[in-house]
Amino acid sequence: MAEPSLALRGVERRYRTEAGELPVLRGADLDLRAGEIVALVAPSGTGKSTLLHVAGLLEKPDAGQVLVEGRDSGRLGDDDRTALRRGTIGFVYQFHHLLPEFTAEENVVLPQLAASRGRREAEARARELLSAFGLDHRRDHRPGRLSGGEQQRVAIARALANGPKVLLADEPTGNLDVGTADLVFTELLEAVRGRGLAALIATHNPELAARMDRTVTLRDGYVVGG
Questions:
Q1: Which residue numbers delimit the ABC transporter domain (predicted)?
Q2: pLDDT tens digits, residue range 186-197?
Q3: Residue 26, strand partner residues
Q4: Is residue 15 part of a domain?
Q5: What does the pLDDT look like over 90-144, one tens digit per residue?
Q6: Which residues lie closer than 8 Å to 123 by C-beta, 6 or more apart?
Q7: DSSP assignment, residue 190?
């Protein structure tokens, strides 16, 4: 069997609070393989966002391993870790977090420039992605002139801009009305499947979860199910 695109091995994450140490992840294990879309469904406060942030190399675990295409991210220095995240992992949030002073196209170009792609190539890639999401006519608009669904489509295009192998999404349609959420989620699934990515998508919506390949949850700091 092919090596997982992303693997968590015994991941622990604790936070220090005024009341003492708060364990959130106690030994989480998870494999994500290319072409597989996994739903993460768990109640609020159980550690979904923490799991996604650790898996996406945005936070370091207190113990355990995060393996990206077989590379142990914990053995990397900060610069190499950042380069691995930028080149391998795409992240979509519930709120789009687009930069308001830049156009839709510029928002998709910027992460590519940060990853050392040339501007001309980055602009061509941005136009290609925005066109795929039906936003060709909106690429010169700033976020304030886009609808909620359009803003999230730009955010998804941005997450795909550097050609990641893994996509992580934290309630990517949770801020949209039901009809728009269904359309955007369909486009997200098509984009992920069409590119053969490994994806972990957190959602509270059981109907959306049912459209994915399998479902996992968090219980007492462990990943279970699926």
A1: 6-224
A2: 888 888 888 899
A3: 12
A4: yes
A5: 998 877 789 999 999 999 999 999 888 899 999 999 999 999 888 899 999 999 9
A6: 105, 109
A7: H
C-alpha pair distances (Å), 174 with each of 3, 72, 133, 184, 203:
32, 32, 19, 11, 8
What is the rounded distance in angstroms from the CA atom of residue 150 to the CA atom of residue 180?
A: 9
For residue 31, which of 58, 82, 70 has the smallest C-alpha distance?
70
List, in sequence order, every residue forming a beta bridge with 198; answer none if it has no partner.
Answer: 166
- pTM, rounded to two decimals: 0.89
Asked if residue 66 is part of any domain, the answer here is yes
Identify the pLDDT of residue 226.
Answer: 58
CA distance linking residue 67 with residue 179, whole number of Å = 37
Domain boundaries, position 84: 6-224
Q: Tell whether the model's pLDDT for residue 175 goes beyond 90.
A: no
Is residue 218 included in any domain, yes or no?
Answer: yes
Structural domains counted in the chain = 1
Angle between helix 104-114 and helix 119-132 axes, rounded to 10 deg: 130
DSSP 95: S
| Alpha-carbon span 38 to 33, nearest angstrom | 10
CATH number at residue 102: 3.40.50.300
Q: Is residue 1 part of a domain?
A: no
Q: What's the CA dihedral at 10, 221, 44, 40 to 10 degrees?
A: 40
Average confidence score pLDDT of the chain = 89
Residue type, 137: H
* Other Cβ atoms closer than 10 A to 41: 20
